[in-house]
Design goal:
alpha/beta; Metallo-beta-lactamase, Chain A; Pnp Oxidase, Chain A; seven-stranded mixed sheet; 27% helix
Amino acid sequence: MLSSSPTRTATPSRDVQTMPIGLGTTALRSRTWERLKFEIEYSLQKGTTANSYLVRGAEAIALIDPPGETFTEQFLKALAVQVGDRAIDYLILGHLNPNRYATLVHLLDRYPKATVVCSNPAARSLETLLGDRAAKPTIRIVKGEDTLDLGDGHRLQFVPIPTPRWPDGLATFDPASGILFSDKFYGAHVCGDQVFDEGWQIYAGDRRFYFDSLHAAQVNQAIAALDKLDGFAATEIAPNHGPIVRYGLTELRGLYRTWAQQQASQTQTVALLYASAYGNTAAVAQAIASGITKAGVAVNSLNCEHASAEEIQTAIAACDGFIIGSPTLGGHAPTQVQTALGLIISTAAKTKPAGVFGSFGWSGEAIDLLESKLKDAGYSFGMDTIRVKFAPTAATLKTCEEAGTDFAQKIKRSSKRRAAQPAAVTGTADRTAQAVGRVVGALCVVTAQREDVETAMLASWVSQATFNPPGLTVAVAKERAIELLLNEGDQFVLNILPEGSDLWKQFVKNYAPGQDRFEGVETQQAANGARILTGAIAYLECTVKQRMECGDHWLTYAVASQGSVLDGDRVTALHHRKSGSHY
C-alpha cells in the first residue's frame, strides 16, 4: 500500500538517499522526518527532502541546488561517493539563502575551480555573503535563453522564474534527459522512500498544501513562471522538495494552473509588502498571506527590495487593503521599506484598512515607525500590529494566519455593506436554500492540537460516513482557524453536545488571533492530545484520512479510534436552520 505519510523504521532522522533518475543524472535527496523549520509550509509535519541533482556530461559535471547546512556533513559524504576523483565544474543555484550558503562554502573549498551559475539577484546576494572571503569563486550570471554545454547532449537551458519570496529563482532544463529542474515549483514537503511519484494521487493533498503555502500569495508571479516552465517538453520535473514528478506530470501541471487561476480570479485583493533580512519577516508574511487566501481574498505580495515604485503604486491603487512588514536593522527600517511606506501614504485611499508586522532582534523600531506613520496619516487598522522577536514559533505563525483571515473577512464585510441590498428573493434559489436549511445536524465542538497550537470550532455539518471502519465526515469552512490542523494524518476530538446546554456559546464567539478558546471551560486531555469537553454527552477521538475540496468548505473524512458516552441520560443537541445559505 502506497502512503504519503513519513516512514520511520530503522532510518535515522537525517540521511541522504541517492538514485539515478535519468540519462547522466543522479538525485541526492537529503531527507529528514522531522519538521525542518517553523514555517507554515512545513506545518503538516511529514518531514521533507532537500533535493540536489548531479548531471554528468562528457566535458563537465554540474551540481544543481546543494542542500542547507543541516545536511552538509551527510551530503558531502554522499556526493564524494558519487563523484569520486572527478571535480565539480559547475554549482547551479535555483535560489540562494544563508542556509544554503553554508553548504556552498564547503563545496567551494572542496572544488575551488567550480563556477557558480545563478541569476543576477542570487549573484548580488552571494557577493554580500562572501564578504571578505579570500578565495572567491567565478560567478556566471545567466539570463533567459542562456545555455551551458556539459557534453553528451546535456546542453542545459536556463530560465529565471522570480517571485517575491524568491526573487533569484532559476529553473534549469536538460534536453538530454528531459528533466526540468523546477526549484520551488511542483514540490511537496513529505519524506519517504519513494523517489518518484508512483501512485501520484496520494500526494495530492501535500502538493495542494505546498502550493497554497508558497505560491497562492504570489500568484501573479507564479503564473508568469508557469508560462515559462510550460515551454519545456519535460518528461520529468525535479523540484527542490518531495518526490520527482514522472507519473502525474501532466495532471500536476494542470492542477497548478487551476489553483493559480482560482486565486487570480478573486474579486478582492490585499497588497502585502515586506522586506526580510534573515527570513523571519518573510515567514510571518507567508503565514499572514495564508490566512488571507484561505478566506477567499487574493494576495498581491511584493518584496520591497526588488519591486519597482511603479509596481508598488499599481498594487496599492488596485487593492482593497494593504499590509506592510519590516525587519529592524540598526534601529531602522530598510530604505526600501521606507520608500514603500511613502508610496503607500501618497497613493492609498484612507478608506483602505491597513496592517503592520515585523520581526526584530532587540528593539523593533521599524515596526513602531510603520505603525505611527500610518496612524498619523489617518489610516484605520484592520488587524493588531504583529511584533515577532527573533524566529517565529508554530504558535506565533498560527496567530499570524488567524490575523490574516480576520483582515480578509473585514474587507469582505466592508464590501458587502457598500453593495446595494438586493430586493427580497422569492424565487427558486430562495426556496432551495430554505429546503437545504431543513437538513439537521448534531451540534458538536471539534478540538485539535499540534505542537503548542490548539484550537476549536463549533460544528453541525457532521455525519456518520462508514460502519467499518467507524468513520464520519465534518465540513470545515476554509477560513476557519482550525482548518490548518485538519489535514490528512491529523488527529482531533469530536465533542457531541447535549440538548439544553449553553456550552456551544463558548465556541461561537469571535476570537482574537491566538486567543484561548478554552478559557473557563472544564476539559481533560484525550490520548491524541486534543481536548475533551467534560460537558459533552459523548466524544470520539478521530484521525483524518481524506480531505475533499467542496466549494467554500473542506469535507474531512475521519476514522474514530476510540470514544465514550459521558452522559447517557441526555440527548444530542441539534442545529435547526431556516436557510441553507448560512449557518
